Amino acid sequence: MNIKNRRFKIVKRTIVVLSIIVLLLIHFFVPRLITEIRNPVVSLIKRNKPVEVGFTTTNQEILRKKLFIPSFDGIKLSAHLTYASAKTPKSTIILLHGIRSSKTHFLELSAFLSENGYNSVAIDLRAHGESEGQFCTFGVAEKKDIKSVIDYLIEKENFENIGIWGQSLGGAVALQAMGFDQRIKFGIIESTFTDFKTIVNDYFDLHAGFSFKPFSDYLANRAARIADFDADDAHPIKYCENIDQPILIVHGNKDKRIDVSYGKANFSKLKSANKAFLEINNATHLNVWEVGGDKYFSRVIEFLNKN
Known about the structure:
The protein is elongated. The protein has helices spanning 3-35, 40-45, 107-115, 142-157, 169-180, 196-208, 213-227, 236-240, 260-269, 288-306, and strands spanning 64-70, 76-82, 91-96, 118-123, 162-167, 184-190, 247-252, 275-280. Helix 3 (107-115) links the parallel strand 3 and strand 4 (118-123). The termini are far apart. Helix 1 (3-35) packs across helix 7 (213-227) and helix 6 (196-208) packs across helix 7 (213-227). The protein is an alpha/beta fold. The relative contact order is 0.12. The longest helix has 33 residues, at 3-35.
């Protein structure tokens, strides 16, 4: 065997070995980056920037306490309950953050709501912040978690009129929760998607520069199997058809992570007769509050006071 043939065989074997390694990574590791929130690799490469707020609060003292609420499957969910400054609160609002964020994102918002007469409960979604759990299920388990939270608030805190406010992933969870549990009286949904498989494809395109839906669907299905949930049930737009509660859908028209068309699609499927769509001009995925500013929050308080 001459040297040329020997080198060719070595190169061929190397390509085969590398191909096998890549396929193993795609099958076993890459899907975990989608659902495993505390994955150390994601922690190294993914840093959520703090979201700017578009409102100010006074310096009055806010009464707040920490809760650990048992979920439907026995994990502990960490939450901050912030009481309304008024003696008679108007209602209680569950606050749900985006992916790889936490309840601390809502510290200023909860103070703002308190000053306007609302209790609020900011939750660390499962596998986030101080809550237990390993995987995010994009609303499949989380909507049942919210039911447990509502049970707790009614039984332990004697709260009755309960609404929900979710951003991005939290918005997707909120839509599914509203369609699942009619005890949620109203909702504010910011910058969320229509279904899990579509957003996996979009994020693959955003980060890789190209998309191939059969491949992204494979990753989505594989991720769902690892995290033990039905990928086809992580489908906020499907739950919109069950929502007849008052609802405000909000989306920035410069959002490159989750296109504004998804917000409009969710809105079109809502059963509710009391619904409104608010498009924030020039807002991206992370700065709806900052760009919307006082005008936006005045609109939110108007919606809350009516409902």
